[in-house]
């Protein structure tokens, strides 16, 4: 499989880099701050209680989740957008929805995708309507935005993984006794893991894709009836 804008040896242009930074900024008005992606459940259930356990949880989600699902999917979607391959776009959109194991995880992806559609539309950056699949979801629109910004595939994956990590640490700072200095320690711990995850994701074949996160799925399902919640997932 070829990557859409190969890749690690190609420098990111200034405008492309700034476009990627805009896309992964916590200030991007799509409401990502409202979702914990199952992490709030892990706190409530006692699976994650301190800095070290949080680091272990995040490493697990990165290795068995993002590396096997969102990151390699971004490569394929960015290539499909570049080639105008509507069949592949629809197929991978359906595949992604099928991997979301709970109502909350599905709802998060669709709602963030819808918010990103509205934002990109206001910036005149949307593809033609006939190119958008039904309920495209956040990952699909992220790949489109990276394609429009001419961001190389590797940097697209790094940016997505960085945004995920920042969101998860922001959730932890709100929902558990974790200070901002501890969050920075975890950032230092996990930065090399993000690079390794991208390296692994770029090597995945289609038959190797699919998240293996039964604990997160169980926690996400239990979160639907959790008595007290700060987040929507």
UniProtKB/TrEMBL annotation:
It is found in: Cytoplasm. Its main location: cytoplasm. One of its GO terms (cellular component) is cytoplasm. Keywords: Chaperone, Cytoplasm, Nickel insertion. The keyword Cell membrane does not apply. One of its GO terms (molecular function) is nickel cation binding. Coiled coil: none annotated. The keyword Cytoplasm applies. Pfam families: UreF. Gene3D superfamilies: Urease accessory protein UreF. Belongs to the UreF family. UreD, UreF and UreG form a complex that acts as a GTP-hydrolysis-dependent molecular chaperone, activating the urease apoprotein by helping to assemble the nickel containing metallocenter of UreC. The UreE protein probably delivers the nickel. Required for maturation of urease via the functional incorporation of the urease nickel metallocenter. PANTHER family: UREASE ACCESSORY PROTEIN F. This is Urease accessory protein UreF. It comes from Marinobacter salinus.
């Amino acid at each position: 499989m070829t990557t859409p804008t190969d890749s690690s040896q190609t420098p990111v242009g200034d405008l492309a880099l700034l476009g990627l930074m805009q896309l992964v900024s916590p200030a991007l008005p799509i409401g990502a701050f409202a979702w914990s992606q199952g992490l709030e459940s892990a706190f409530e259930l006692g699976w994650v209680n301190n800095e070290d356990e949080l680091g272990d949880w995040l490493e697990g989600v990165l290795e068995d989740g993002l590396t096997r699902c969102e990151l390699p999917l971004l490569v394929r979607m960015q290539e499909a957008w570049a080639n105008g391959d509507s069949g592949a776009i629809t197929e991978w959109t359906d595949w992604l929805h099928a991997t979301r194991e709970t109502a909350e995880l599905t709802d998060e992806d669709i709602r963030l995708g819808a918010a990103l559609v509205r934002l990109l539309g206001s910036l005149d950056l949307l593809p033609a309507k006939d190119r958008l699949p039904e309920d495209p979801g956040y990952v699909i629109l992220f790949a489109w935005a990276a394609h429009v910004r001419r961001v190389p595939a590797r940097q697209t994956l790094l940016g997505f993984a960085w945004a995920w990590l920042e969101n998860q640490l922001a959730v932890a700072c709100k929902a558990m006794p974790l200070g901002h200095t501890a969050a920075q320690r975890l950032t230092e711990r996990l930065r090399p893991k993000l690079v390794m995850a991208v390296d692994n994701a770029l090597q995945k074949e289609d038959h190797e894709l699919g998240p293996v996160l039964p604990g997160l799925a169980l926690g996400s399902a239990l979160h639907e009836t959790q008595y007290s919640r700060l987040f929507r997932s």
